[in-house]
Amino acid sequence: MTDYSKKEFAPKPPEISNGGSRDRNFANNYDLSSDELRELRSLLLGVEPTQLQKLYERLNNPQIQAEDISRLLPEAVILRTIQDKLLAEAMVPTVEQAIQSSVKKDLNVLSEAFFPIIGPATRKAIATALDEMIQSLNQTLEHSLSPQSFKWRLEARQTGKSFAEVVLLRTLIYRVEQVFLIHKKTGLLLQHIVAPLVTAQDPDLISAMLTAIQDFIKDSFNVKKGETLQSLQFGELIVWVEEGPQAILAGIIRGNAPEELRLVFQEALEKIHFRLNQELNTFEGDIEPFTASKSYLQACLSARYKTPVKKNYTYAWSLLATSAIALGIWGFFAIREQLRWNAYLEKLNSQPGIVVIKAQKRHGKYFVTGMRDPLAADPQLLMKQVKLNPKKAIAQWEPFLSFEAPFTKKRAEELLQAPKTLSLNLDANGNLYATGTAPREWILSARKLWRFIPGVTQYIDENLVELEISELESSKKQIEQKMLFFVEGTTEFISGENNKLTNLVREIQKLLDTAKYLGKSVRIQIIGHANTTGIESRNIILSQERANKIRFYLNSQGVDTSNFTAVGVGSSLPLKQGFTQQDKQVQPRVSFKIFLADTRK
To answer: Which residues does 102 contact at the CB level (< 8 Å), separation at least 6?
Structure first.
């Protein structure tokens, strides 16, 4: 086809001047009376020569005013647009700069202008995407729990396709993937639409191939007039062709489409001819007017998938519910076990004598490593306290000695075998204090053994009293508090006093034994007393006899009385000062005075 719009074939505009020379040149070069030239000019420019000449005359008039230009400019733009697209291409940079300047100046101007368009377009795009996603999701969910799904998953891995895509293909009955609207006379593609999730090749190439195939069949075979190619099949794909007076509608279908679909194609083709009849008749290569056919072509993009015969998802919901319950139960026990593990770690870290070095979870079990003093709390008991499963927790403890006060004190008590009559206390500096009473042997042993107690820097027992000394003092006090009473004027005991003698012998013997163990000497004074009646000289003699009687009795009972002295003091040491008549009856008595001395070097 010859392109008459090229510059070298375009007629030169007439030169218009005041003297009219350009009018003559125009008349000489272009014969306005020539029908051929007028027809050529009409084809090239699309305007009458008289109108074009008037326009040139008005533009070259030096007397023209700006107001005249404003009236001529719209007409000039229209005339130039009819000729070719150079004016539009020339205006593109100017329009782009104008838009940029407008955006920089005020963004709201363009946003408000495009708002009525952007809103519906955005909603349509979102709706389309959601429809596609829901369609794919429905098919995927519907078949994800079927036995066949495992086969499809394997196919997806082998082919590299997604599982949803394989499900759509395997459950597909038919789907119109592409629709072509082809001009019947020229074979040019007028419009092309593609179904969602379908990858399309070059539509112009496909349109040309379909036209070529149809022409080949018509030329190569004895085809009756009016007969057309109605379908082609390539594997899973079928091409359906519907031919109209001015256009051909071709659809690429995957699967087995019902014959009713042809009615949809025919109806769409009829509507396109009705709506765009003039554009089809006058088509010269501009496909822009055929954008209006998209809505009719869109109706041809139908699809149908296999659906389960029984729309009962009890199995799937039951499995999902069971999985959810199992997951919930597992989550509950997992969280509870984790909480117990955390509580166990907190208890370990709070216990003296336990140092946690590392705690972690591997392969569903908990592992903890650290150091533990032998005297520290038992980790197994701590585990039972928090109700942690011992099979899930594996601990490795290295023994070590903790110098914390409770453990040092406990080790001291165990090593020294401290009696219950004393208490051990440890200060922050490691000083061990012993207070109370203890046997002499233990005290001597503790003074040697404390150096072997880890954590003890000094042993102090200055406030510790030997148990034997305490017993010695106790015996001394008890004996000195004892008194034996006699009948007035005699050396005979009053009723019941004989019973005191046995206990007296035992206490004195104990005192002597304890003093001997402690290396102390004992001197006991037996003091005889008389009342204030009678002659004092007689009272002294009587009180001496009473003291001697007790000394002799003790000696007879095996008590060593070599350090005992019997002294009669008469009434010089009365029981009470300012005694009454009744007190006089108890004045005849024997009392004891004990003297202790340390004989150790």
So the answer is: 109, 110
